[in-house]
Amino acid sequence: MDQIHLMRVFVTVGEQESFAGAARQLGLSPAAVTRAISALEAQLGVRLLLRTTRNVRLTEAGQRYLEDSRNILARVAAANEVAADMNSATRGHLSVTASTLYGKSFVMPCVVEFLKQYPEVEVSALFLDRAVNMVDEGIDVAVRIGHLPDSSLRALRVGQVRQVLCASPEYLARHGVPTHPSELRRHAIVAATGVSSNIEWKFGGDGHATSMRMKPCLTVAADAAVDAVLTGLGICRLWCCQVATELAEGRLKIILPDYEEAPWPVHIVHRESNFGSSRVRNFIDMLAASLRAHPYMNHHA
Predict the structure, then answer these.
(1) DSSP track, 171-218
(2) What is the CB neighbour count within 10 angstroms for residue 98?
(3) What is the pLDDT of residues 159-209, one digit of tens each?
(4) Does the N-terminal or the C-terminal CB of the chain have fewer CB atoms within 10 Å?
């Protein structure tokens, strides 16, 4: 029998925990499902399923083979999509995620341009100040700032950004300009979620890294944190690119630049299985070119 067919039948039986349920889902007779599983077990020389009068359970070997078979079937489906995609227009659904302020400022312009160029694509943009699980939430593309954990995701580095401490000129005129991180304890601190909500702030400078435990008077999403700091509430740590306009216009000032950490890398992240799709591939190409060309990305990709 065809190997892919046998795997597909086995995966369905394993997920349904039922020969009859798998037969209904696959549109096969129960006898055909039984023959397929018997043929697969004979071919492998190992028992994959334990059958009782009430249910079907996976053996230890069956559990491992189920996971491997799922991965192989996913790759087959992806290969089929790539082949079919070669002679078709870029269409379908694309889901994108990034942090709130970064997404609005840097990703949205690219999404709009992409939709103009590929009108048959539908985009869902999820801009949140939390780490989105791409696999669980079905996300195709993400922009991540920071060092990436090891995972099954593929990453394309597009630049790096600075974390800067900033405050309004009015605040600094009233409360003074800190010259060392230890002086921050005397100041009002605003923590931006997704950027600096961790109360342990790290600093570079003086040839070695230091950290300080902060006590924010306000913890809020990054866009609201910018608004709060602009009104003179206190000092906030933000990505330089998030406040590029405010810094250029003089509405915010960078403080303690000599104590900044090394810049953080920026990556476009995607699931390996979906990169063959023209909509994903074309969007990543457009987004990478847009981010790398941005003057505030401090890029050295």
Answers:
(1) HHHHH---SSGGGGGGS-EEEEETTT-SSEEEE--TTS-EEEE---SE
(2) 26
(3) 898 889 999 999 999 999 999 999 999 999 999 886 655 578 888 865 667
(4) N
Widest CA span in the chain:
83
- Among 1.25.40.10, 3.40.190.290, 3.60.110.10, 3.40.1650.10, what is the CATH number of 163-259? 3.40.190.290
| Per-domain residue ranges of the chain | 3-85, 92-154+268-292, 163-259
pLDDT tens-digit series, residues 104-147: 888 999 999 999 999 989 999 998 877 778 877 888 999 998 87
Contacts of 298 (CB under 8 A, 6+ apart): 159, 160, 161, 162, 240, 241, 263
| Residues 6 or more apart whose Cβ sits within 8 Å of residue 88 | 278
| CATH 1.10.10.10 given to domain 3-85 | yes
User: Which residues touch 148 (CB under 8 Å, ≥6 apart)?
Assistant: 155, 267, 269
CATH architecture assigned to 92-154+268-292:
3-Layer(aba) Sandwich (3.40)
